[in-house]
């Protein structure tokens, strides 16, 4: 199954949207049905242990670039989440593990899989940000997914509207959070002005670059 589309965020910039979409805490907060999204060491995950770990964490939404840089997604790293999805008559909760395959502003790609009892999926997805003519940002996204088990039996005609609804609610949540956190007012370091040291390190992490890339 292939899903794709473009969602436009108003009154924002590519840098602000990239900052927001770099934050696992904001992603988990905006994604419908997501209980948690945490960094893990590999795709071999103990979800019971991870649920306990999630309940003990106290990370809040923030517009502070330094805080986001410390917990931002990193290329080549694994992240695990617990996500409930309502598809027709079934409401599976998927134990999901994804890998960030590419992260280089303005593009990000990830791949992964999820399972829930008698249903499972494998997916590869990506997004790219671009400025719009009216002072906003367009997020072009696409996902290729293979679905198995009970959910697959429901059919793509039912799954497609569900996927589109989830994506719309997700980006609407991101838009709302951008406004609430006023990321446009945050003291985001400018890559052109950053000096060597801590400032440039923050910029590198937010742009998805490693220290080796910037040397």
Q: Can you describe this structure?
A:
The structure is a single chain. The protein is α+β, with helices and mostly antiparallel strands. 36% of the residues lie in helices and 33% in strands. The chain has eight helices and seven strands. It has helices spanning 14-21, 24-30, 47-56, 65-71, 150-154, 156-181, 198-207, 211-214, and strands at residues 2-9, 34-40, 78-84, 93-104, 107-116, 119-131, 137-149. It has a seven-stranded antiparallel sheet with strand order 1-7-6-5-4-3-2, sandwiched between helices. Strand 4 and strand 5 (107-116) form a beta hairpin. It is globular.
Helix percent band: 25-40%
> Looking at the structure, what is the overall shape?
globular
What Rg is obtained from the alpha carbons, in whole angstroms?
17 Å
Strands, count: 7
Structural category: alpha+beta
Largest sheet: 7 strands, antiparallel
Mean pLDDT: 87
The percent range for strand residues is 25-35%
Strand order of the largest sheet: 1-7-6-5-4-3-2
Unreliable segments of 5+ consecutive residues: 184-197
* Terminus-to-terminus distance: 41 Å
Task: Give the SSE string.
Answer: EHHEHHEEEEEHHHH
Count the helices. How many?
8
Write a short abstract of this structure.
The protein has 215 residues and is an alpha+beta fold.
Strand and helix layout:
Layout: E1 2-9, H1 14-21, H2 24-30, E2 34-40, H3 47-56, H4 65-71, E3 78-84, E4 93-104, E5 107-116, E6 119-131, E7 137-149, H5 150-154, H6 156-181, H7 198-207, H8 211-214
Antiparallel strand pairs: 1-7, 2-3, 3-4, 4-5, 5-6, 6-7
């Amino acid at each position: 199954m292939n899903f794709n589309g473009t969602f436009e965020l108003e009154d924002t910039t590519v840098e602000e949207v990239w900052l927001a979409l770099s934050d696992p805490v904001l992603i988990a907060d905006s994604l419908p049905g997501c209980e948690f999204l945490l960094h893990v060491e590999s795709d071999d995950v103990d979800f019971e242990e991870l649920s306990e770990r999630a309940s003990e964490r106290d990370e809040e939404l923030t517009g502070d670039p330094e805080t986001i840089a410390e917990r931002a997604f990193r290329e080549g790293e694994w992240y695990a989440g617990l996500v409930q999805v309502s598809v027709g008559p079934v409401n599976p909760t998927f134990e999901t593990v994804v890998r960030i395959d590419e992260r280089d502003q303005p593009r990000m790609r990830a791949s992964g899989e999820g399972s829930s009892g008698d249903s499972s999926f494998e997916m590869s997805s990506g997004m790219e940000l671009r400025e719009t003519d009216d002072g906003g940002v367009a997020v072009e996204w696409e996902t290729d997914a293979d679905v198995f088990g009970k959910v697959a039996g429901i059919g793509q005609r039912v799954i497609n509207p569900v996927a589109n609804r989830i994506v719309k609610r997700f980006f609407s949540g991101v838009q709302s959070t951008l406004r609430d956190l006023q990321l446009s007012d945050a003291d985001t370091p400018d890559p052109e002005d950053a000096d060597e040291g801590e400032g440039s390190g923050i910029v590198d992490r937010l742009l998805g670059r490693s220290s080796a890339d910037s040397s």
